[in-house]
Specification:
887 residues; mainly beta; 28-stranded antiparallel barrel; eight-stranded mixed β-sheet
Length: 887
Amino acid sequence: MIFKIVKIAIIAIILTFIFPVNLVNAENNIQPLKEENQLDNIPMGVIANGRNVISSISVKAKEDGTKAINYDNWLLPLEPILQALKFTKQDLPDGKWQLRSSYLLVQVDPHKFINDPELGLAITPKQIEELLGIKSKFNLIEYAVEFELKNFDDNSEQYIETPVILDGLPVIKSPRLNIANIEQKINLSGTGKGNLNSQGDLSVVGTIYKSSYYLKINQPDLTDSTSWKISEGQIFKPETYTDYIIGSQPTFWRNSENVTGDYWGVTTIFRDGFSPFLDKFGNGGSVNPQQRLQAAQIKYTISGRAEPGTLVRLVISERGDRFIAEKLIDNTGIYRFENIPYGGQLGNNYYIFKYPKGQLTATPIKERANIDVLPGELEVGTSSLIVSGGLRRLSNNDLWGNFGDVTGGIAYKKGIAEGFTLGLGVIYDQQWKASGDFIFQPKKIPLRVILSALYGDKLDLNSNVSLKLGNIFDFNYNSDRTNQRYQILLRPLRGVNIDANSDNLSSRIKLNWYITPELELFNNNESVKPSEFGVSWRFNKRNFSTSIRLSRDVENQWRYNLNQTIGKLQLTQNLDDLGWNNEVLYDLTGNDNGQTGHAILLKYNTREINKNNDNFAQLSWRYRSKNKDRDGAYKLEAELGYGTGSQGGGIIASIGTTIIPKLLLRARYEGASLTNADSSFRIEITSSVNTINGFSSGDRKGDALRQNGGILLKGAYPNIAQLKNSGFEPSEINSKDLFIINNQPLKSYQVDQAGDSLLVKLPPGKYRIDLDPAGYPTDFQPSFETAAIEVIPGTYTPVIAEFIPSYTVSGVVKDNQGNPVGGAKIEAITTGKPPVSSITNEGGVYYLERLQRGNYKLSISGEKSAPDHIIVDEKSPAFKELNLILK
């Protein structure tokens, strides 16, 4: 047997020498060329889009002086050609190559290329067109291979979150005890008969040792302090994985029907493996334990199918300018992006972009990524524990009220699997109860289930179940102990929507048919109202727009809505079963369709209630400033006019302003109204004081500091005259372009101007502050360039960048023979400040920059210098020349 095998092997070797075979070419089915078409080794250039990219390169080619012969099978060296075509190559684990350019991403098998003994790996023009989609030709005049590249630049970029490095930075700590904001609201109202009501609210927010405190006093009668009552009082200390809440607060469980009074107690929250959801823009408000159990970010797997060869990108928004991952689909047709964060800084608007055949020049197929996080859902392996105990405030008849009824509970929640969270707990609230939470969102079924149960003497179940089948069918079911609600949304045809929903009070079916984007037919059916049919039409063109909606029910009741704009004239009409509302506005200024600036208003309204037919007409002038304050209110808003109707007539006037520092004022007087003959007035005053930057104007949203903090940014300058001489105004130093927070410019945050300071609300934590040198005044430098900032709730951490004059000393270093000394290290050393150094160039020139005032000792590479010191003071020029001699 062995001799037979040896004999076969010898015969095979002999046949191989007699009939040699090119194994690579055989594998690729490359037919040997006929003798008259054999290729020659010829030097030739390479042209791409009319530009010579390679002057000369060896190719295997053949031409007869007038044209190319067998051009498709010419051999071009692979590596130089890929570089000329601007492709990069990456080796893949399966042995294939991934080729990438600005317009194409493909995978190729390197065995398909020809291994030429002289050129090495080579590619033919036919392969270039088939694999890369690039056409070429032989340019006889230039004697080059000419390629037609696609003029396309991929403007999208891969999003990579830059790590925020805090180690080793100086730390600016927050205040430990202060009053950050005091706010007093006053509401005065009355009538011509002399009735006067005065009400108010007083609130204080601040910090006490890394915790925020909040106190709110309700003032039913401002003139009677005995009527004042504490409505809220709370201390809140948040940490990354632990929270403490002391005082008034919502319970983390649902209250029973027979339980009365608000809850005051102590709550501790432990989070394992996740941090809570934080509002980047600092719009916090009251602290709710349930919100602190909501994860800021959950990592998901996004998967799907696409045709092999498709480039699939996971992008952050529908614009597609930033993608976080991409994959070229192989023969399995499956793509999978794992550990994709949902929520937090990246947000929730993920899309899938599919580029057929890897062509980035093609219009991508866009799909919304199938990912959603349910309220209370936790990532696999993470968990939370909440423990709370306290008292019910049974009455609130005096300042503090009366307390009783001990209550409390403990609950544990854990992420069991992706899309599956389970929670259990025990509650005592007048009786013992068991609690349970079930959150389920399977990956392969578009089903969402949220169940929350309390069981004492009976079951109290809240449920939220939804099922979505593409864009055709949506089903939602919600229930609690008082109501059950169903909703079914159908889209059977393009432009046709059917909405069927019901609750304990009524059931409704709505049909909308969008014949065109502008024209809609609708039908509304409700069990307690007559059926209604109608039509709506919208038209919008420059300086002319119309929106009209007309309907009629089976009891012949008409309803009508019209919004018409013609140039500076606007008409609004509404008709329903209660009456008519009409308004004509003429824009005197031409700003924002009459929303700001001066305008004339004519109103006529009717009302029919209890067989009383009232009417009222009003003509008035209105002004609104174009600017708003940081809370969204117009800085100045005023109206003055006269109205008359069935109840009488009189002057109508109102004013609202935030121009006065620290004060919001709104006042309105009506001599008569649609339903009342008596004159009336109302005055609203909100005074808000921020005490962080001295006593300055507050933002009238002081309660936002209850669970958030912030940073007060300010540039200081001791010598304004010297600053102006450098070409800077003081306001320019406090520009938003100067400060960078966590590697992001200030425009990425919500920034408020408070005098000469900038206020940035932020969730608690540590942040990195960098100063952009582009914002430095000439010959000035800040007291710091980078620092770590501590932010705690209830206050702003002051960050003062003091700009002080800086000086530059320059000259030439020579030895005793007068020769320049190159490569020498010049050091200027003074007490209490880091040394300033410079390395001389070949001509011995040095620059000691950003010197501060002081007496500096000079040295040259550790040796003595002449002169050996320099004094920098307020009389020194910003730039001084000083030549040095090495002793």
